[in-house]
Amino acid sequence: MCTEICPARVPNEYNFGLDQRRAAYIEYPQAVPKKAVIDEPNCLYFKSIKKTGKPACEICKKGIPPKGIQGCPADAIKFDDKDEYMNIRVGAVIIATGFKPMPKHYFKEYSPHSPDVITSMEFERILSATGPTGGELKRPSDGTKPKTIAMISCVGSRDERYHPYCSKVCCMYMLKHARILKEKYPDIKLYLFFIDVRTAGKDFEEFYVYTRELGAKIIRGGRVSSVDVKPNGKLRVRGFDVDLCSPVELEADLVVLATAIEPPDGVEELGSMFTATCGREGFLREVHTKLYPVETQARGVFIAGCVQGPKDIPESIAQARAAASATAALVIPGKIKFEAIISEVDRDKCSSCGVCVPLCPYTAIRIVEYKGKEKAYIEPALCAGCGVCASACPSRAITFHGFTTDQIMAQIEALTEA
Amino acid sequence: MQKIGIFLGCNIPFNRPDIEYSMRFLLKELGVEIVELEGATCCPAYGTMPSLGLLEWAVASAWNLSIAEEKGVDMLTGCGSCYGVQNEANYYLKKHPEIKEQVDKILAKVGRKYDGTVKVWNVINFIYEKIGLDTLKQKIKYNLNGLKCAVQTGCHNLWPSKAFPSGEDNTFFPKRLREICEIMGGVAPHYSTITDCCGMGALRSNAPEKSLALFKKKLDVIKEELDPDLAVIGCSSCLLQFDAGQALLIEQKKLNYKIPALHLAQLTAIALGAEVEKATAMASIPLNGVITKIKGGN
Amino acid sequence: MEEGGVNVIDLTQGDESFVKELIALGADELRECIQCGKCGATCPMALAGLEFFIKRIVHAANLGLRDILLEDSSVWGCQSCNRCVEICPMDIKPYEVIQAVRRAAVKVEACPANTYEGLRNLYRFGHAVFPKGFEERRKKVGLPEKPPTALSFDEFRKKYQELLRQTILEEIAPFPLD
């Protein structure tokens, strides 16, 4: 109820601003829990309280009685509710914050100023029954139904200027969009521009061939060179067709850019909170691509989904289940097995200088009281056995099990003998 | 008083001195002191020294740049190639210290040096940044009276943008030349092939038929989308194609319409009160209608 | 291709030393090209229909197809528009590949006659483009017959020629440099 009667309107973030939502709103139809919230900075109640000290609007709570419009029937509107931060102690964390689709404004050669040049994510919303057009195919500029659509792959992916990696899912979702459109509107003209069509995955190649059978036109070897706006609003798309061995062009009503999958905003800060690190491309890094794919270098911190790198739904689910299993294996026994190769402080030798504390990449070293003095202590559950502290300790108070000073000296002697 | 070194290049002084006349006139009218770059040469054109080697390119451009540096001025050119070639050379000299070292040695042998302080301007960016649209508006004597202009910035004035000291926010949607035409009272809409190559240059020298066919394709779009009174060009090479090249297409009966063309320097000079006979002396496509409109007729 | 020849390119004639030569001549990021094709549809050479144009030239260069590239004169039709450099997602600077092929061609005299004409004019007059009748044109607009460039100053022109002789022009020019 409140989400329909609230008078304040703001761009709907979930639909990338293609329509508007109210200040009292449910974030998206599948939100868990599916409850309405008030967007404080845009709510007229809060705005007016801030300005004049008096509330100018309480429609969501009280309705508009003269018009017979009822307010919240559950009396669930609480203007005095506050944001709360809660501390929860946990044994493990799974980071699965997803990705961010790259915005179109970077690609100046594709006329990003035109409202009819949109990203695939925006197109996904336009095709959705719960999207800004209620599932009707309309182009943003004038609401007409596009007759010709060009889709462009690898926009910002496989691109040294932005992201050198392949975003992996674009080829298949472009084909999915094409299939949805062709099944619903058989007369629509679709041109899909690919560098290569990458269909590695179960049933993917079959899906590709089926989409071709539906009549979608596939242009290969042709990352599009330019999109130009004509005075009549149409878009001229120019690409190279490696199969025709020729430059090609067409006039489209709508252009859809399959922009790259990017790491989500703030992932680096999030990772560093857990001492998990990001790779060169900004995604959270697993310990080992093959052997430890859901573990991070921080013990007890796991990753799943696109925060680790571009991947599709089946792969994300497989990885999420793997992360859940790894977490369960760690937490359920109620005990932790320490690795054999870790460092330990001989607290009687420790001079309390504290040099080791900031050096530890895993924040495993703390200063704690021992026999009435502050001494270094290494938490064995966190130590990853890198040995940095042992080599830095000026008092030689840290033993790196398996690589003690005596052992290393013996190795050096053996190597340099005769 | 602002000073600028006038870099002439080849096409402007030898093929289209009406552009040179116009450049000199407009600088004078806009209160800019002209410094002659005595001894300057070809930029050198892309098909000459740049096609022999990076060092060859850099050293030949450094010759010209060093002349401007010695006089303590930046350079202004009306030719896109001169703008592109010399800016790229400047960029390479900064980026490749090993080439700069060799260039320094060669320059020293002929008694010159270049420290890399000279900025190369084209007419568009010079008017836009160093004169300013408001000043231009105040100084013009003749308004363009709604003259519909199709603008051609020219490839070499746009790319490679990272080698250029200034320029458009979006080189695939250039606005500066349009804004200059509009501040003088013209109308200059965007059109869909605004950044397309005109076909002049190496293609024109080595495959003239193909070059003119490429040009015609662009002209047809201009005619269809804008049907302008005038084409306003930011590069002397493009102007040769738009004017003499167009006349050739008409002569070959491949074109059944005419779009008069002026270099931005010519148009600005005329608006500032230059002698039309001199400012347009070499034009092949008649400009009578355009001039009448500018001079206040209808 | 020879008249009546078979339409097949023998990849084994690809010569890796040619790839290395081009890299040394300025095409330093040639090998990073993934043939995405982005340069192919706005390249004036491709649009005008030249046999070889940027995408094809880069690929042939990567395959080391020296003879095929040097026998074809398409590279000399490149407009140097640099649009390919502006849009290349791999930043290989495709135009530098064209220039590298030209530089390799010049060394074996595999370039069109007008290339030499431009170089000769540049050397003799200081201007690559030097059309006849300019004196009349200049007079018509009230300018001196000669522009104040190296053309008007012998001492500058001599120095400029001396500068040019310090370059590879000294080795490859098929005309006297004196």
Structural commentary:
The complex is a heterotrimer of chains A (418), B (298) and C (178). Chain A is built from eleven helices and 22 strands. In chain A, 33% of the residues are buried. The radius of gyration of chain A is 29 Å and the shape is flat. The model of chain A has no long low-confidence stretch (mean pLDDT 94). Chain A has helices at residues 2-5, 44-52, 59-62, 120-127, 170-184, 204-213, 267-273, 313-331, 356-359, 388-392, 405-416, and strands at residues 9-11, 20-22, 24-25, 37-38, 63-64, 69-70, 93-95, 100-101, 117-119, 148-155, 189-193, 217-219, 226-229, 235-241, 246-252, 254-259, 261-262, 301-303, 343-345, 365-370, 373-378, 398-400. Helix content of chain A is 23%, strand content 20%. The relative contact order of chain B is 0.15. Chain B starts with a strand and ends with a helix. The mean pLDDT of chain B is 97. Chain B has 15 helices and seven strands. Chain B is globular. With 178 residues, chain C is mainly α. Chain C has helices spanning 16-24, 44-48, 54-63, 66-71, 83-87, 94-107, 113-125, 134-140, 154-165, 169-172. In chain C, α1 (16-24) packs across α6 and α3 crosses α6 (94-107). The model of chain C has no long low-confidence stretch (mean pLDDT 94).
Query: How many E-type strands of chain C?
Result: 0
SS field, number of helical segments of chain C = 10
Q: Could you tell me the mean pLDDT of chain C?
A: 94
Q: Quote the average pLDDT of chain B.
A: 97
Domain unit count of chain C: 2
Main β sheet profile of chain C: none
Tally of separate domains of chain B: 2
- Radius of gyration of chain B, in Å, reads 19 Å
User: How is the quaternary structure best described?
Assistant: heterotrimer
Q: What is the structural class of chain B?
A: alpha/beta
The structure class of chain C reads mainly alpha
* Anisotropy-based shape of chain C: elongated
Strand content of chain C: under 5%
Detail the poorly predicted runs of chain C: none
Helix content of chain C: 40-55%
